[in-house]
């Protein structure tokens, strides 16, 4: 059945979920200290599918510059090690049975700049996601106006509300990016 109303709250919720996903991606970027979130974006080729590392192992932080990854299934240890090694995080795990120990090296100037570039890529992806939500909302508003469910004035007003929500979420993405960039570049 065709939609006959426009829900601004749904558009804002979808934009907010893009923002939260971006913040999760930022949390996974390292800034000199070990964090269990660093390994969140890693996908492991396991059981014939790409599986998040968090579904195959427990990640802990025993020291400030050390991560410990306890793999639950011994047969997956090599696959987890390979996925960590091939990630763009620049980590080199050491295997001890089912436990992988990952030393977090000091970030040099070049590596910090690479991390900032990755953060900018995450920000651009988040902005694109927010703009896609805006486009979907505006398309729905135009369709409702064309079908006679909205007046021209309502269409303009609701389009403005969608644009304001978009601007707000983009500004939040920029703020989070600036804070993370400062954190990464801080020596």
CATH C-level category of the largest domain: Mainly Alpha
Number of helical segments with 4 or more residues:
4
Beta-strand share of residues: 15-25%
**CATH homologous superfamily annotation of the largest domain:** Ribosome-recycling factor
CATH architecture of the largest domain: Orthogonal Bundle
What average pLDDT do the residues reach? 86
Distance between the termini: 57 Å
In helices, the fraction of residues equals 55-70%
Main sheet: strand order: 3-4-6-5
Q: How many structural domains?
A: 2
Radius of gyration from CA coordinates: 21 Å
Helix and strand sequence? HEEEEHEEHH
Structural class: alpha+beta
Low-confidence stretches: none
Describe the biggest sheet? 4 strands, antiparallel
* Dominant shape: elongated
User: How many strand elements?
Assistant: 6
CATH topology of the largest domain: Topoisomerase I, Chain A, domain 4
Domain Ribosome recycling factor: 22-185
Function: Responsible for the release of ribosomes from messenger RNA at the termination of protein biosynthesis. May increase the efficiency of translation by recycling ribosomes from one round of translation to another.
Family: Belongs to the RRF family.
Main location: cytoplasm
């Amino acid at each position: 059945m065709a939609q006959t109303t426009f829900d601004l709250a749904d558009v804002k919720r979808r934009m907010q979920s893009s923002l939260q996903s971006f913040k999760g991606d930022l949390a996974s970027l390292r800034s000199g200290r070990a964090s269990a979130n660093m390994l969140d974006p890693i996908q492991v080729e396991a059981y014939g599918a790409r599986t998040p590392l968090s579904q195959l192992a427990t990640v802990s932080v025993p020291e400030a510059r050390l991560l410990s990854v306890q793999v639950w299934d011994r047969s997956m240890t090599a696959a987890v090690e390979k996925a960590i090694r091939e990630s763009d995080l620049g980590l080199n795990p050491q295997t001890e049975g089912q436990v992988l120990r990952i030393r977090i090296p000091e970030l040099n100037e070049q590596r910090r700049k690479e991390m900032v570039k990755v953060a900018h890529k995450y920000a651009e992806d988040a902005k694109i996601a927010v703009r896609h939500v805006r486009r979907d909302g505006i398309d729905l508003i135009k369709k409702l106006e064309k079908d006679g469910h909205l007046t021209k004035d309502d269409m303009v007003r609701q389009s403005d509300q969608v644009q304001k929500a978009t601007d707000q979420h983009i500004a939040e993405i920029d703020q989070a990016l600036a804070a993370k960039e400062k954190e990464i570049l801080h020596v």
